[in-house]
From TrEMBL:
It comes from Pseudochelatococcus contaminans. One of its GO terms (molecular function) is allantoinase activity. CDD domains: DHOase_IIa (cd01317). This is Dihydroorotase. GO terms for biological process: purine nucleobase catabolic process; pyrimidine nucleotide biosynthetic process.
């Protein structure tokens, strides 16, 4: 927003600020793209002379969401997704900042590629885009990237995306290197050897469907190893996705020991379980796989407790050729940017999470992890805002989604809660149209 733009007063809103726990009626005053005041005293006509006013109609006004894990095809797989289409999907889902994974072609393993993504996003994306750089060159798990130079170029975290760094010595060196730059190391905690030919959660359901299962130990063994390396090196470590009760206990113990360890969970593992696969629904072939209901309830409880820090969309567009296959041959991955918040609101509606806790995991916590100023409604913070009707019912239609690909696990699902408007620096970038 231009410094010469008039102030903008949002009033008659339910203000939910996960950074402070504020949840009550009031307004937000924005000037030059920055929040300058928040509180119940901001009502219609209380702004400075010439201020633009938006009556929020009692809807929720909250910080824009920050998604730590989105796979975008650009460069190299623009047929699946581009920075432009991903950002449009993000805006429709209330996501104002996305961290794009390095699994592109070429991968984001050199400063020049970081610069390309930042420039391309600046020219085509309507939300903030921050690249996560590769931990190892060509994502091969062997040779480290130049973490210092990549961080200087603008990378906000370091990860090999869906590829786990299986060599403990390589990961130890990466963590030691990253520690000196206070860089965040993110690892996908799934041992590929234990995964083997597995395509869904190991158990009775997999046997019934005749599919190879993935044991929970594929996740927990690697998670245990990574946390021991975090203790050895002192690096900031983030487990990209956890999905089962055993992993929750491992992370809880690490945090109780004072280690700089955090973790995330996919919206899919929070709101779906292995039974949702039904008759081989390939849109629900995911990594980590959907677990049973006991594990799902365990990760929900861990999120409410604060053991799990962030919720991610795990947005991974796939085209028809890779998903219209037998379940065992389909690629992992599902869309998530546009439906993440609505799906998460299911847990608020069932009373398992407060709205503030959900929004903290979707905005304030991930922003803090990558050192970005979003995720809060406070004076001096950027006016990246969403206006949300938490009671708006709708049916997901994949053909109306903004992503290029259509592999949504929530296709035809009934969801409640819709983003009405999304703002970046006080500027409207998305408005819901019922048509």
């Amino acid at each position: 927003m231009s410094a010469f733009s008039p102030p903008h007063l949002f009033h008659n809103a339910r203000i939910v600020d996960p950074a402070t726990g504020r949840d009550g009626r009031g307004g937000v005053l924005v000037r030059a793209g920055i929040i300058v005041d928040v509180g119940p005293h901001l009502v219609s006509g209380s702004g400075p002379e010439g201020a633009q006013e938006t009556d929020c109609g009692g809807s929720v006004l909250a910080p824009g969401l920050v998604d730590l894990r989105a796979f975008v095809g650009e460069p190299g797989a623009e047929h699946r997704e581009t920075l432009k289409t991903a950002s449009e999907a993000a805006a429709a889902g209330g996501v104002t900042t996305i961290v794009c994974m390095p699994e592109t072609n070429p991968p984001i393993d050199e400063p020049a590629i970081v610069d390309f993504v930042l420039r391309r996003a600046r020219d085509t994306a309507i939300v903030h885009v921050h690249p996560a750089a590769a931990l190892t060159k060509q994502l091969n798990g062997r040779e480290l990237t130049e973490i210092g130079l990549l961080r200087e170029a603008g990378a906000v975290a370091f990860t090999d995306g869906t590829r786990s760094v299986t060599n403990a010595q390589v990961l130890r060196r990466a963590m030691t290197y990253a520690r000196d730059f206070d860089a965040l190391v993110i690892n996908h905690v799934e041992d590929p050897d234990l995964v083997g030919q597995g395509v869904m959660n190991e158990g009775a359901r997999a046997s019934l469907l005749g599919l190879h299962g993935i044991p929970r130990e594929a996740e927990t063994i690697m998670l245990e190893r990574d946390i021991r390396l975090a203790r050895l090196t002192g690096a900031r470590y983030h487990a990209a996705l956890i999905s089962c009760a055993d992993s929750v206990e491992i992370v809880r113990n690490a945090k109780n020991s004072g280690l700089p360890v955090t973790c995330g969970v996919s919206i899919n593992n929070l709101t779906l379980n292995e039974l949702d696969i039904g008759d081989y629904r390939t849109f629900l072939r995911l990594s980590p796989p959907l677990r049973d209901e006991v594990d799902r309830q365990a990760v929900i409880a861990a999120l409410a407790e604060g053991v799990i820090d962030v919720i991610v969309s795990d947005h991974n567009p796939q085209d028809v050729e890779t998903k219209r296959q037998p379940f065992a041959e389909a690629e992992n991955g599902a869309l998530g940017l546009e439906t993440m918040l609505s799906a998460g609101l299911r847990l608020v509606q069932t009373g398992q999470l407060t709205l503030s806790r959900l929004l903290a995991a979707l905005s304030h916590n991930p922003a803090s992890l990558i050192g970005q100023p979003g995720g809060a409604l406070a004076a001096g913070k950027p006016a990246d805002l969403i206006l949300l009707d938490i009671d708006y019912p709708y049916i997901v239609d994949k053909m109306k989604l903004h992503s290029k690909s259509k592999n949504s696990p929530f296709d035809e699902a009934r969801l409640t809660g819709k983003v009405l408007k999304t703002y970046i620096a006080g500027r409207l970038i998305y408005e819901y149209d019922e048509q």
